[in-house]
Amino acid sequence: MRKNSFYIGTGVFGMWLFAACSQDGVPGSETSGSAEMRIYTDVARADGEETDAGSTADNPVFLFWDFGDVLGDVANPTPLYVKQPEKHIDTYKRPNEPYNTDELYPDGNRRVMATGYAPATFLVPETDGGRTDYEKLGLPKKDEDMPEDEEIKNLCQIDVLTSIEPLVASAALPFDREGGETLQFMHAQSRVYFSAKLAEGSKEFLKNVRIKLSPTVVATQVVWDRDKSLYVPIASGQKSYELAQQPNDDNDYYMLTPENPLKIGWAYIVPGQTSLPVSVTVARAETAGASEEEWKDVTMKATLHFDIERDGQAEEDQGKNTNTLYANESYTFTLVFSEEGIELIGNKCPWEEGGYLIIPIYPLTD
Fold first, then answer.
1. Cβ neighbours for 233, distance < 8 A, ≥ 6 positions apart
2. Helix or strand or coil: residue 306?
3. Cα–Cα separations (whole angstroms), residue 265 to 210, 295, 346, 349
4. Would you place residue 105 in the very low, low, confident or very high pLDDT band (cuts 50, 70, 90)?
5. pTM
């Protein structure tokens, strides 16, 4: 398992120090690299992630900015170059060949700052008076507006990748120099999984579990935070999002059992959450062979809380709270149904997969 290197942007001040060193007293003949802007890129895997962000990283956008605009805090900056590579972000990781922009560094040893995001198929820069604003990236306004994708069913299932920390370079100290840094990308959101099962000894007949997420946790926009030098997901929508147990081949639903939990669904949420407001709906009947009319929906509301065991010595856990789910982290809730209520099991888990809260199951009513 590759170590998940997680960085927070040092901001403009840190980049200014680096850029100053890159320009003063550094003869170009002493650096390796090319006159063309070439850059190494990489996806920092989340904990336990076996693949490098999958197809999400197939449609990246690399942005190259005039660093003078950054230092000057220009109100409406426009990138020098916007590039959309045809291949996966990890194609350009060391020791492979870097991505070649086919552009030369600006004259006069002007510095360039590199950032990026993915996927371009879902993240679209906003436009204002004909100007394209790459500091404000919009996600589809409605589910039906999204490009077709076999796996992505709604807005809360879009995996957003963003650059972790900007890189600054110039012709004197190019991006692809020997020993230089890599433009790394990470999952900009948190990911939550939901599963459901019956408690041991329970004689309930339950199926068709649905979990509704509040719009306050689902990102509708990704904006550039100038103070953090980082793209940040923002929730500003009004629509709630439902994760639902999928029907089987008979167009019915598997009933919950005490054995293996059934997977209900997963969602990406705005990072930094300490709680997750949800409503849980389940169909309930007196017998397994009940008619369709005899299955009654029962809905319960709850606020779920994160309880994460962190290693204070581990780099990836430094400065993180145990009750907060951060970007590039994943968590699983397992709903355990019984006659008395729902016991909710929550665990921090590897990104590729995913504790107890009692919610009453009310008696059947007409």
1. 160, 188, 189, 219, 221, 222, 270, 271
2. coil
3. 9, 22, 15, 15
4. very high
5. 0.81
